[in-house]
Amino acid sequence: MRLYTKSGDKGFTSVIGGRVSKDDIRIEAYGTLDEANSFVGKAVAELDKELFKDILDDLEKIQHELFDCGSDLAYITDKHQYKVSEEMVAYLEEKMDEYINEAPKLERFILPGGSSPAASIHIARTVTRRAERLIVSLMKAQDGIPEIVLRYVNRVSDYFFAIARVINARLHVSDVEYIRSAKVFRGTNKKGEHKNG
Description:
The chain is mainly alpha-helical and about 200 residues long.
């Protein structure tokens, strides 16, 4: 099997239901999700298999689900078989509720970084936010984009923020607060989630 097809040499690529330009916003959106997925893979390679077994299990699940998001965004046909579900979103919310008390109390914005795997997760988080913005633009430009994908991408970026802090906490690496940040997180709500003032 050859790894190259030459079918994209004219600047077009295949999606589910036809072909589009490689700079189409749809391609930008799911290509950016693939970029985020690669940084998740980098973090997986950096995490200790015993200390972070729970997080590694989550990250493998999320890597598959990011592919699911890309698949759902690739449809340009009316015959949809979407893969992303409300259950995926609910799972991320449940996990964040579990992790919220493991990291130190958060009052101010923090700088991305700390340990090497946490830094990789922060990169995945920011790339995922970029994908989210592209999905919003895609939804404005074209009908039929599944809203659940946008909700999932929003939650998974929040999840990345949560586990980056947990990773640093387990490795006894302190998050660095942004020195000019006011206190922007005003305690917690009933679900244990930090409230942004």
